[in-house]
Write a structure and sequence with these properties.
single chain, about 190 residues, alpha/beta, 5 strands, about 60% helix, globular, binds adenosine monophosphate
């Protein structure tokens, strides 16, 4: 198996690049944000519980997202690999993911860290709000909250993987294809190894 984490702040292009990466490498896309929005849309108890947190730009509890990821791993026993997008977002989630993957006799092979400056991030989220219909993109206060949560709770996850020597930093500004090529040039040598 080949498992990747696409890492970066809200607005760094993880969703866009994930779509291209899963196609090229035949991976299963696991976006906890997408999974939570699906639950919200279906009006499940989990979705209703998550809604108020998401709409404030806060994180959903670790147990909830780890449970969703665990079910998704179990549901895809024949996967070539997984692309984790927007997960893990806390150290506790990263530790839980390592445990789940160890049970499946696999691991995270690489973490691609998309680097985008803060001003560009805010501009992108403002642009995305016009088409995504996402309240958490449209409201500047919620956006600031999401960036703060990212810095305080999620950025340490990069250090966690750095300690395992798995992080590749990728310049996340430029065209979608330029960024994609940069990501691939980090992944391809790992596959050849
Ligand atoms: P995203 O689409 O990845 O930007 O996620 C949208 C929102 O869903 C986040 O702002 C959080 O409220 C929630 N969320 C998504 N993934 C996670 C996660 N791994 N841990 C906690 N909350 C999450």
């Amino acid at each position: 198996m080949f498992n990747l984490v696409l890492f970066g702040p809200p607005g760094s292009g993880k969703g866009t690049q994930s779509e291209k990466l899963i196609e090229k490498y035949g991976l299963i896309h696991l976006s906890t944000g997408d999974l939570l929005r699906k639950e919200m849309k279906a009006g499940t108890p989990l979705g209703n519980e998550a809604k108020s947190l998401i709409e404030k730009g806060q994180l959903v509890p670790d147990e909830v997202v780890v449970g969703m990821i665990s079910s998704a791993l179990d549901a895809n026993p024949d996967a070539k690999g997984f692309l984790f997008d927007g997960f893990p977002r806390t150290i506790a989630q990263a530790e839980a993911l390592d445990k789940l993957l160890t049970l499946k006799k696999t691991a995270i092979h690489a973490v691609l860290f998309l680097m985008v400056n803060e001003e560009e991030l805010i501009n992108r989220l403002v642009g995305r709000a016009k088409t995504s219909g996402r309240l958490d993109d449209a409201d500047p206060e919620i956006q600031r909250n999401r960036q703060a949560v990212y810095k305080n709770e999620t950025l340490p996850v990069a250090g966690y993987y750095q300690n395992q020597d798995k992080v590749s930093r990728v310049e996340g500004e430029g065209t979608i294809d330029e960024i994609f090529d940069r990501i691939c040039s980090n992944i391809d040598p790992l596959l050849e190894a």
